[in-house]
Design goal:
The structure is a single chain. By secondary structure, this protein is α/β, with parallel strands linked by helices. Helix content is 35%, strand content 22%. A 7-stranded mixed sheet has the order 3-2-1-4-5-7-6, sandwiched between helices. Strand 6 and strand 7 form a beta hairpin. Helix 3 packs antiparallel against helix 5.
């Protein structure tokens, strides 16, 4: 480790990381190092995020990994820097991940990371959600820091098979977002809509997830 300002600003790896990633921790470390080295210059993260890169971003995503169905096919809409898609693909190699991102420079980053980390369980689509060619095919869809729930539901729900699930990472206003999205929830026949709080026992910042069943029979 150097004494550069960037190095000094980077958050040390929390003890919880090894527990959450298990024998995949080295891949998580490599991904974190890549974000530290190139994330700011490539417009993926801001410099203010480095002091909380692990807790606020990587582990914030990783605690949601157990929610996804084993052997399932899951979409990440607006994958961006790979939060949560790359993190979840590292944590859950038993799941097939479809990363959906329309911006070319972000797609290039995702492709580089998938190659560098050897993530054979990931496919990348340079497209908007409605143009990705996976409509009605996915067991679940996730997204993080993309848009308010009332906007996100019309982008994500059509991608999920009948009886599949939305598992959306949200902030502290998750409950209010559900109330504001009442019209979209009815339109897309979502049921069992609720907020689950994850990571309270292992993280300094909890993760809130909005879960909902799509067109369940």
């Amino acid at each position: 480790m150097t004494d550069s300002p960037v190095a000094e600003a980077v958050e040390p790896e929390p003890a919880a990381a090894s527990a959450l990633f298990g024998d995949r921790i080295e891949l998580a470390r490599s991904y974190a190092a890549a974000l530290v080295a190139h994330g700011e210059e490539r417009g993926l993260i801001g410099p203010q995020e480095l002091p909380r890169l692990w807790t606020r971003h990587i582990l914030n995503c990783a605690v949601a990994a157990p929610l996804f169905p084993a052997g399932g096919r899951v979409g990440d809409v607006g994958s961006g820097a790979g939060l949560p898609g790359i993190v979840l693909a590292i944590a859950r190699p038993d799941v097939t991940w479809e990363l959906i991102e329309p911006m070319e420079r972000r797609v290039a980053w995702l492709e580089e990371q998938v190659s560098a980390l050897g993530l054979s369980n990931v496919s990348i689509h340079r497209a908007r959600a409605e143009e990705a060619g996976v409509e009605g095919l996915l067991d679940a869809v996730t997204a993080r820091a993309v848009s308010a729930l009332r906007t996100l539901i019309p982008w994500t729900a059509p991608l999920v098979r009948d009886g599949g699930e939305l598992i959306l990472l949200k902030g502290r206003n998750a409950e209010a977002e559900i109330e504001a999205a009442a019209k979209q929830i009815r339109r897309f026949k979502l049921s069992a809509v609720r907020v689950e709080v994850l990571g309270a026992d292992v993280l300094s910042e909890e993760t809130r997830v909005v879960r909902a069943r799509v067109r369940a029979a």
